[in-house]
Amino acid sequence: MEKKYPMFTEEHELLRQAVSEFVEKEVTPYVEEWEEKEEYDAAAFRKMGELGFLGLRVPEEYGGGGTDYWSVVVLFEEMIKGGSSGFLTAIGVHTEVAIPAIMHYGTEEQKQKYLVSAVKGESLGALAVTEPEAGSDVASMLTSAVEDGDSYIINGNKIFISNGARADWVIVAAKTDKEGGYNGITEFIVDTDTPGFEVSRKLEKVGLHSCDTAELFFTDMRVPKENMLGGYNKGFFQIMENFQPERLLVAIGSYGGAEIALQAAIGYAKERVQFGKPISRHQHNAFKIAELATKIEASKELTFRAADMYNRGVECMKEVMMAKYYASDIANEVTYEAMQLMGGYGYMMEYPIQRAWRDMRVMTIVAGTNEIMKLIISRNLGL
Ligand SMILES: Cc1cc2nc3c(=O)[nH]c(=O)nc-3n(C[C@H](O)[C@H](O)[C@H](O)COP(=O)(O)OP(=O)(O)OC[C@H]3O[C@@H](n4cnc5c(N)ncnc54)[C@H](O)[C@@H]3O)c2cc1C
Description:
The chain is of the alpha+beta class and 383 residues long. It has helices at 10-27, 31-37, 42-50, 69-79, 85-105, 108-120, 235-271, 283-311, 317-341, 343-346, 353-361, 370-380; strands at 125-128, 144-148, 151-162, 169-175, 185-191, 197-202, 213-224, 228-229, 273-274, 277-278. The longest helix has 37 residues, at 235-271.
């Protein structure tokens, strides 16, 4: 029989099996502990490096797998099954946000220094763009980088930075031309042991507990010129371009998280008997489940379409935004309804649906809010 998804080859299936085994052994048993202490074990990250999972798309000359984007889809489809969107986020920020930025914009020296160790699981990366006063409006950021001899002196403050408390290096976006707006931002790779780099606090979140989120301060932080990433005053455009893999990651995590939540709800609804029959046999619930399953299928298809375009190097900004916004909206609807189907039990901490509901909530906010997705989609439609 023909396969439902022909893009997944034999090699992808072997990768799926390897990731699935890793998740079963090295993630699932530890999720409760990681969520409790609000960070995953570094050993799991290093193991992913050893297994080659951190650089699937990175060219082989830098220690990566040199594979296509479908391998990334496989990786995160399997990782979400471990039950920790927080761990998936921490790894995803490293592999789909920090690594691609170095891969696309880094100099040869930067790739040798940062990319090679990142792929091996020997260094952890992060991206710091958001500031307390500059979220959706990236160009209004205040962090400044001022040229001084063979360095830039960076001063400022970043907030909500995933991996920020544990990263070995952070890509920091700063204003190199105060009046330049979109054309005045430059990115720098900053080693986190640079004097003047400070993690001021680890933020407490509603969900994604296995992933740390930090507020950072930079005080007279001297960064060598050779650590400039990409073009001078080109940072804004690099950030926008690099949003593609980050938004695809959110879309994959969203339909994957929704699938698991719905499966849990279906299992529960078939067992739970009220008014003399399983609650799944009350037509309202059966129809609700059918609707949710259809919406998940639609978000998966939309994501696969965007992933296919991205994989083939086709311009796909609009399609990626549509997938991110739709899949994350649906993941929120599904986790909300799955909890509703489980009644009072669903609201109890001992049932994992509460974590899925908390974790999926942020998917409409991260990687650009869904309102910003709609704003740019509408502009793309000529509005
Ligand atoms: C868990 C988590 C992890 C994160 N990780 C990172 C990270 O690693 N690196 C990083 O740099 N950032 C990170 N962020 C920041 C994230 O990208 C921002 O939170 C997001 O871009 C929104 O910015 P904001 O929170 O300042 O909200 P604001 O921009 O203040 O928006 C507030 C509300 O106003 C709406 N709004 C804003 N402008 C418009 C408009 N023009 N039209 C209509 N509505 C609008 C928004 O949609 C939102 O609903 C993270 C955030 C969270 C919560």
